[in-house]
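Support case: 2'-monophosphoadenosine-5'-diphosphate complex. Customer-provided input:
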Amino acid sequence: MKKWYAVIGDPIAHSLSPFMHETWFDEHGIDAAYIPIHVEPEHLEKSFEAMKTLGISGFNITLPHKQSIVPFLGSLDESAMQMNTVNTVHFDGKEFVGSNTDGDGFVRSLLVHPVDKTAKVLLIGAGGAARGIAFALKRAGFADITITNRTFRRAEELAAEIGASAVTLLESEERLAEFSVVIQTTSVGLSTGEALPISLERIKAGTVAADIIYTPLVTPFLEKAKEKNCVTVNGVGMFVYQGAIAFEKWTGVQPNTEKMIQLITEKLG
Ligand code: ATR
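Agent response - structure generated as follows:
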């Protein structure tokens, strides 16, 4: 019988996940559908019950439900437990299991570039996105991570949790040439005209500079990094790889990520 999957969120109309997963289902001849469902917060529990009753095989969760879905699930994997937020749910034959594939998705997108795990990494930001990436970098074996954040206390807390160092924004600017990977996880750059979270004046040429934002495709951070001859990585890869990890959990199939990155870049360009 045809399987079905969904993404739930509020709002949901602009999600690129249906396009991505339906393209992959087609490419691999998998008889399945993936639909966007607009779920308002007060209807989350009933919507989940309805999806279960109708035999959903798995789903993605976007804002604002990534945390509020947790109590309804049968169990959480390690990534979701560390984050206490879930972006992917799969049915394991017995129960609905929550995962958070954002951090691992980011790390996969980074490893496509010339990066090795002994690299000195600077993570800018200490919010939810930074947390997922910090844990995923650790899981992947990155040993030298430094965190900087506008609110220094949050950088210190996250650093203590994962076994990293914390520096102030000013110190990170001064020591920028030490790092060969710089990851921008703050919301700065989502709206136009915002100042960079840190000055990139001292960044070394050849540094891999990654931003998790993909609208716009080129943020002011990436624009500046390009001027400084860095290798720039935008957030499209993270989006595609977090979806690919979900797709693998649902179907056991590894989808074509490179082609999807191209398709989505064209759509957004
Ligand atoms: P998300 O889940 O997207 O990471 P978040 O948890 O609200 O969202 O975290 C937002 C991050 O962006 C934080 O690191 C925040 O810094 P503070 O901890 O000091 O708030 C950072 N951020 C947001 N606006 C910023 C700005 N204008 N300049 C520098 N950092 C900013």
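The two ends are 37 Å apart (CA to CA).

Case will auto-close in a few days if no follow-up is received.
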